[in-house]
């Protein structure tokens, strides 16, 4: 798989804390939770179209004005990870499913743990909605941004369901 060179990185503010966006000229590569980190990030190209597009869509998502992201994505991972991330994109706004549900959808019912590991490696959280995956008993488990952020993202979506 050819990786395009990184052309921009930019930090945006959000209700879940600062997010670092990375992109090439063709696609968004990553969304990273920065938490309490303070990074001195200077965009390589502050007006880079993909980063600007992603920033606008994320702000619209947090404002409850966007349910489907259209920014081009280029997640880098194994074939299995890519298939899991594709399944994540099929989870409806405000809905949840379990790791087992995803494993079954992939035709690999015994792969729940592998699905969890792929979820953990998702380079585009929020946009590829790994926060919508929960444990088999309905509990919130595992999230790269931390469980409070996972809960906040789910609450944001569920609260806005009646607004559309």
Structural commentary:
By secondary structure, the chain is α+β, with helices and mostly antiparallel strands. Helices cover 33% and strands 12% of the residues. It is built from 5 helices and 5 strands; from the N terminus they run βββααβααβα. It has a 3-stranded antiparallel β-sheet with strand order 1-2-3. Strands 4-5 form a two-stranded parallel sheet. A hairpin with a 6-residue loop joins strand 1 (8-12) and strand 2 (19-23). Helix 2 packs across helix 4. The longest helix has 14 residues, at 49-62. The radius of gyration is 16 Å and the shape is globular.
**Class inferred from helices and paired strands:** alpha+beta
Terminal residue distance: 39 Å
Count of runs of 4 or more consecutive helical residues: 5
Describe the global form. Answer: globular
Task: Give the topology.
Blueprint lengths: L7 E5 L6 E5 L4 E6 L15 H14 L16 H10 L8 E2 H7 L6 H9 L12 E2 L12 H14 L4
Parallel strand pairs: 4-5
Antiparallel strand pairs: 1-2, 2-3
Helix pairs in contact: 2-4, 3-4
Compact summary:
The chain is 33% helix and 12% strand. It has 164 residues and is α+β, with helices and mostly antiparallel strands.
């Amino acid at each position: 798989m050819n990786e395009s060179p990184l052309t921009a990185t930019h930090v945006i503010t959000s209700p879940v804390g600062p997010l670092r966006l990375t992109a090439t000229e063709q696609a968004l590569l990553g969304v990273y939770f920065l938490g309490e980190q303070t990074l001195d990030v200077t965009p390589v190209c502050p007006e880079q179209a993909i980063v600007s597009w992603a920033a606008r869509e994320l702000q619209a998502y947090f404002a409850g004005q966007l349910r489907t992201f259209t920014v081009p994505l280029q997640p880098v991972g194994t074939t299995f990870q890519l298939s899991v991330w594709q399944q994540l994109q099929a989870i409806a706004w405000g809905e949840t499913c379990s790791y087992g549900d995803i494993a079954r959808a992939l035709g690999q019912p015994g792969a729940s743990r592998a699905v969890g590991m792929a979820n953990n490696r998702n380079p585009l959280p929020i946009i590829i909605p790994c926060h919508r995956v929960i444990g088999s008993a309905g509990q919130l488990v595992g999230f790269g941004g931390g469980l409070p952020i996972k809960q906040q993202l789910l609450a944001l979506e569920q609260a806005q369901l009646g607004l559309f």
